[in-house]
Specification:
Number of helices: 3
Radius of gyration: 13 Å
Shape: globular
Structural class: mainly alpha
Strand order of the largest sheet: 1-2
Distance between the termini: 12 Å
Mean pLDDT: 91
Order of helices and strands: HEHEH
Low-confidence stretches: none
Strand content: under 5%
């Protein structure tokens, strides 16, 4: 049995990370877990270059738009939440 695969795509805003992630997810039957520190906040779409539904290309994206802009959130909380998301994805194959 093969080990689970995780791919990290990193780079500056507007360098094509979303398109690359969608292509990789299509090829590997995967899902995206966003690691953007501002895209977690609802309503912060323009300044963060948050991908819209068309850019997401039908691929599930996690860790986007789940907090109000006034919420405090730490790297530790992100790690806990993202780990749960990854475990869920892996449990579904």
């Amino acid at each position: 049995m093969s080990k689970p695969l995780a791919v990290c795509i990193a780079g500056p805003t507007a360098c094509g990370k979303t398109a690359a992630a969608v292509a990789v997810c299509r090829a590997l039957n995967g899902e995206v877990i966003s690691m953007d520190s501002m895209q977690i906040y609802r309503g912060m779409d323009i300044g963060t270059a948050k991908p819209d539904a068309a850019e997401r290309g039908g691929i599930a994206h996690h860790m986007l738009d789940f907090l109000p802009p006034t919420a405090a959130y730490s790297a530790y909380q992100y790690q806990q939440d993202a780990s749960r998301v990854m475990e869920d994805i892996l449990s579904r194959g």
